[in-house]
Specification:
The protein is built from three helices and no strands. Helix 1 packs antiparallel against helix 2 and helix 2 packs antiparallel against helix 3.
């Protein structure tokens, strides 16, 4: 059975991060932007776990545990904000959400 090396994990993590980064930059739907931010978070946790496994320590795994705990709270707050914006403005398009005007 072949095992993946550190380089392969880092390359996959970098690709996931780039996909998420360009999703944040190019998309105009708040839900898609939010999913892209979550993809960037998953990419960073993958890199932490890969480096932790490569070094033979549990440090990265502990960081991932805390990141996932914060991410669970972030999902609840982020989706609540998106739902509140949709109820007020009737849209999820970022271009239409100019709450400082009017």
């Amino acid at each position: 059975m072949m095992t993946a090396s550190l380089n392969e994990y880092v390359i996959i993590s970098a690709l996931l991060f780039c996909i998420g980064f360009f999703g944040v930059l190019l998309r105009r739907n708040t839900l898609v932007v939010y999913m892209s931010l979550e993809l960037m978070l998953v990419a960073s946790t993958l890199a932490l776990v890969a480096f932790s496994r490569f070094n033979g320590t549990m440090d990265g795994n502990v960081f991932v545990f805390f990141i996932l705990t914060v991410a669970a709270a972030e999902v609840a707050v982020g989706l609540a904000i998106i739902v509140a914006l949709f109820r007020k403005r009737q849209t999820v398009q970022i271009d239409k959400l100019d709450s400082l005007k009017n």
